[in-house]
Amino acid sequence: MLSSSATPQRKCMKPTSPVRDWAALPQDVLSTIFLKLGPSEIMLGAEHVCTAWRRVALEEPALWPRIGEQLGRCVGIEAEMAMERVALTCAAGQCEAFRGCLHSKDLAYLVQRAPSLKSLDIKRFSNYEGTGQLIVALENLLLLENLQIHFTYSVKRDVEILQSVCQACPSLKKLVLIFAVKNEIEANSPSVGLLISLYSS
């Protein structure tokens, strides 16, 4: 007679959960999820999941009110700038806050794609010859309230640039201009050189 210890034990099988079709989620649900993710997670992950998710990411302007705040943590400068251009296109004019690196050649594109911009933070502006183009671009951002620019070159006539910026942006509530100094250029350091900060109520 077989002992009870030799009797095979029946395993309790848990019922398997039904497979979910994540691609079939309603667009409003996906939009809510994507808003919580933010731009970098959308561009580096969510939009590559499936065609349905990519369609929402590229065709829903409300997902892109703020661009560039997290992209720099994930990729290099050139890739970051390319992603920011794509994000500006997706925003379809609804972007209100932009933070990123810009060349003078990018300014016209920014103005065209984000005419309702209220906050602009240029982390690196490195074209001295493009300073005039910068002022022209700022004149066309009529709703701009907050502006910060980090110039990667030293400027002898920084007061004149400050005046030009203030004239170009009469609705500013906060202005920060950061200029490189000689030691910063030689050391290629990201440290702040000369800081000019203007606040108005």
UniProtKB/TrEMBL annotation:
InterPro entries: F-box-like_dom_sf, F-box_dom, LRR_dom_sf. It comes from the Eukaryota. Pfam families: F-box-like. Residues 19-67 form the F-box domain. SUPFAM superfamilies: F-box domain, RNI-like. This is F-box domain-containing protein. It comes from Eragrostis curvula.
